[in-house]
Amino acid sequence: MDTVDKMKETYNENLVKKTIEVLRVIKRNDLVERLVSLASKVTLNMDKPEYKDKESFDFSEEICGTEQHKRESKILPTRFPLQDKYEQKFSPADLLKIGPPVKQSHDTSEKDLAHIFLQRLMMLDYRARYSPVRQDNPVVSGSQSVLVFNIYNMFSDSAVSDNSLQSYMHPMDVQMAVFHCSDSFLKQTVITKLSQCQYVLPLLVPDPVTKDIECPLWTFRQIKKTWKKTQIKDNSHAITMKTVPICKAETPMVFFFRLGSLPVSKSQLMNTLINDRHSTFFDRNSPGSSKSHLLMDGVAEIAWYCPAGKPNDSFTDCIAFCNLHGDALSFEKQREILIEKSSVNVVLVPTLEKGQKSTTVIQDLYKLPKPLIILITDSVCGAVQMKNNNYKMGLKHRSQPDVSGELRGIMRKILSEPHRSFQLESMAEVSGVTVDEDDEVCKTGKAAAMKLVNMVQGMEISNIKYTFLPCQDLCHEWCKINKELHHLKGNIEQEKSQKLHKLRIIRQNQCEASCSELMKSFTESLLSLESKEKEYFLKWTQILIDALSTEDISLILQSYDEKWTEVLTLKKKHDKSDLLTSKQTELEKLSQKLQSATFGLEHIFREMGQIYEAHREVQAESRHDWAKYPELAADLMISGHPVELMDGDAGHVPLTWLSSLLDEVIKKLGDQRVFVLSVLGVQSSGKSTMLNAMFGLKFAVSAGRCTKGAFMQLLEVSEEIKKDFKFEYVLVVDTEGLKAGTATLHHDNELATFVVGLGNMTLINIFGETPADMHDVLQIVVQAFMRMKKVKLSPSCVFVHQNVPDITAAEKNMDGKRRLQEKLDQMAQLAAKEESCDAECFSDVIAFDVQTDVKYFAQLWEGSPPMAPPNPGYSESIQELKNIILSKAKQSTGITISHFNRKIQDLWKALMNEQFVFSFKNTLEIAVYRRLEVEYGNWTWALRSNMLAIENELHTIIENGNLNKVEHSDLFNKMSNKYKEVEKDMTKYFEDDRDKEMLVQWRGRFENKIKEFQEELVRGVERKLDEVIQQKKACKKLDDKKTEFENKLLQKSKELAHQL
């Protein structure tokens, strides 16, 4: 009897598996086939009585029937349409297309599941991984109620049984299937979004086909973590804030794994340690969980605990937690790698008995110098410390909070002592692990980016911009003179000629300075690299530059915090010495340094635009391929990169650059129609976050680096819904926040008018329930539109109230809506009166319906950051708003790209010519100021007429010869009564007028103006009367000389007569 026949008598699954592995190594495929056949027969007979008492087991791919595999393979393509995506991967471009709205139903069709998962994840909906599945294919099962999703055959050489098809699909398999079917850039986006959702991230991933282990290091590159570390210094708690790219963060790492099958959930235990309000790790009690899963066994996941610097923090510093899925005995390679990298090892076992393989593994761990914590599920003993900082603890008959509390205390004690740190980047050095960044295309892009970044390494950000981006520094002066050119005074032609000459000199200087090594390297890389290499190059450049900026900003913030503390301490002591002044000066310098410490790809692209505009205007010879710059930028815009529309530092729109760029877009796409959607709101109100979640965009969102200026991003309307719209693309315009610390009133009003004027629709983003912050700006926008009659505009707006926790806010604020409508209409009427226009309500200028165009959003975070996940209610609000936008967009024809280009030109030129209206807070303020100017004219006329009467009186006295000198004080005394009357009238006006609260801001200025006017009047009359007196004296002197000459002539005549 041979070995195969022996196995028929006592069937053992593990023995069959091991035997098959050995037979394959020794090339005995004939015996392998016999064993597979045996396994299939045993599988088919499992329902027979003689097998009822046998130990249950799982079937591996070696013991699945080939006939079943063929049958299921025919059904599979219609059930999970991702097979083609395993070779032809999903890309970010697939997500950037505007498609049908995400369905909010309780279950999802199998064919839609991958797309629904991605779309909901992009909207920061952490429930994306819990999407239940509706069975579409009746061939597989007759049950109408079963929720299935068959992905098992996708990466497997064999099929699963019919029974497995009637089980719930494991949600983590869906996530991993999407991960495997995405290209590297979409993987990075998915992992970044999962991190924002406070979910665990894949660290070691077995390839579903080859079983090779990969570390997806590239996918972590965009993730930054912020936390507050608490340390005890001088008997007090010192808190230090850190913001670090997670790949470079050096933290302790706690590795959890199990040996054997457990009655408790390891992942659930880890959740209670990290965040007891949110399931960071998917555990057996999570919605949709099931025992059957294909793509998770052997996957190692990682998550970071980030403390908030509060007394109730679980740990005082950032800690990485790693979890190995499945039985670690079956995944020795992953287990050994993570044991080596960890600071603390936590192993869960059912029991500790001699002779077991798990016991051997624990004995080896016990010999290591690293701390070890053994959790035994069938033991009731409490925590016991053994030697070498090792612990064991029983879990039987103990509640989860008790276990996690005691385990947390042990880990705190261990980590308070010296321990090994873990850095994600070190995974690239592990042998036997494939790293995604070792891909040749990725390495080529990184090498080009490193060449660029090495030039600026070690330099301060402000020095980098001054040294390598000189055209932007010169641009500030150019913009200032260009604005003055639109508001000439005095000798207009001469002044215009001088300013044009200065502008040309600046352009020539830009041409001469446009040969920095950094710009040469950047543009050469864009011109020479292939498409994928170029994508990697831009990503790596942004990642590496961000790392520089983050480090710089962290140091500045730390210095600022220390200096601010010193200033407050001195103020509390009422110290008014030079030391306080010195500290305040240093604090102001740090504030300015913080403002200029931003540096990103947008600055490099801005330099490209300035180089192009300078060379285009001067037509200077250059070795640079500056003429190709618009085409390069157009390619990036078409591929989904944001393009700067307004320079946020100079407050300038580069018309020549944008015109050429959009012309290139037209050459490549045709003169397509676009729907322009813009957003406007105060600083840090969540504008960019909202747009990114709504459309999967890439606008900068961190509080340390808010949007400056305006950016636009092009989104294609998908073929599925294109028939419902009259345009092919949506152009989204994101803007910097209004009322920022350094922004002027003029800048805010100008930016708001530009953004609202460009958009077919503008989202007015408001933080909270009260729109008061935006009232004033909108009034200025309305009046500016009325003044710019030559620019034909037809904008519309939707108000979005963010961070409104009350779900009944919409119903409760009906009265508020009415008041908003009345306020806007009142201001529109006032503006119309000022500008002599025929507008009776706000909607006559900007389309707006208070009943449908006011939306309320829930708060973004479900709890307190940094460990809080996004609020699902926020994601639902995002989807609702997106549906409303698209519904309204269906009624619009949009505009062609060429029309949009002309609109930018016309609108910006009109804004440049408009000066007066932007200097005010709102329309009422303009009206009040104009009334004040009328009154001021009356007051000055009263003084002038009084002085004219005094002048005439004194002139008569001088003519009569009764006054030889006019004293300055006498003139003041003579007009003092009238001046006092005017002062009294002024005081009464400023104190009794109905708009006295608004007038108070100008009172000091106008009181000084009236004093200066009086002084100027007195000096003028004094000068004129002095001239009259001098003239009178000259006449008298002349008369005296006349008599003298007459006498002399008479004497001479007499003498001459005597001689004759």
From TrEMBL:
Q: Where do the VLIG-type G domain residues begin and end?
A: 671-908
Q: Which UniProt keywords apply?
A: Coiled coil, Cytoplasm, GTP-binding, Nucleotide-binding, Nucleus
Q: Name one GO molecular function term.
A: GTP binding
Tell me what this protein is called: Interferon-induced very large GTPase 1-like
Q: Where is this gene product found?
A: Cytoplasm; Nucleus
* Stated family: Belongs to the TRAFAC class dynamin-like GTPase superfamily. Very large inducible GTPase (VLIG) family.
Q: What GO CC annotations are associated with the protein?
A: cytoplasm; nucleus
Q: Which residue windows are coiled coil?
A: 1011-1055
- Which InterPro entries does the UniProt record give? DEATH-like_dom_sf, G_VLIG_dom, GVIN1_dom, P-loop_NTPase, URGCP
